[in-house]
Amino acid sequence: MTTSKLATRVRRHALPLGSPAATRLAVGILEVLSGECGPGEGSRLLGLSQTRYYALEARAVQGLVAALEPRAAGRHGTGLEGLRLEKQALERTVHRLQALLRATQRAVAITPPAAGTAARRRRGPTRGATLVARLRAPTPTPIATEAVEGGA
């Protein structure tokens, strides 16, 4: 089989499963497995050495068998239980590391920082606070100015 025939078959049987190069390799391997051409001719048409061809053929057959393994019936779990178990394991790790930190601080005679003392010091009112104060300030009513003008 010539390269043009192989290219025609690749286009005719092209499946939306992978790249054109992978599809070309799949068609070539399937032609050899079906007996249309021999391994030597197939590897030459694909531009591969026979050793590389046999390695790709073995990988393709393994992938085919793996894809045809029976699947578990029914819905597959969302993994929430697995996430809960992972969360519990992480919490245990955190508690263990916190205890280790406290023991190390006692051994080195370092006092742990008190909770809540790391508050940020502000230099003055922030832009947001100033804006809120201006928006909440009472606006002068136009009635008071009319009374002054009307009384004259």
Task: Write a compact overview of the structure shown.
The protein is mainly alpha-helical.
What is the strand content?
under 5%
Derived structural class? mainly alpha
Q: Measured on Cα atoms, how large is the radius of gyration?
A: 38 Å
Number of helices: 7
Major β-sheet profile: none
The global form is elongated
Contiguous uncertain segments of 5+ residues: none
Mean pLDDT: 80
Reading the helices and strands in chain order gives HHHHHHH
Structure summary, number of beta strands: 0
**Roughly how many Å apart are the termini?**
111 Å
Helical fraction equals: 55-70%
Q: Mind explaining what this structure looks like?
A:
It is a single chain. With 152 residues, the chain is mostly helical. It has a domain at 3-67. Helices cover 65% and strands 0% of the residues. It is built from seven helices and no strands. It has helices at 3-12, 20-34, 39-46, 50-67, 80-108, 127-136, 142-150. The longest helix is centred in the middle third of the chain and has 29 residues, at 80-108. It is elongated, with a radius of gyration of 38 Å. The relative contact order is 0.05. The model has no long low-confidence stretch (mean pLDDT 80).
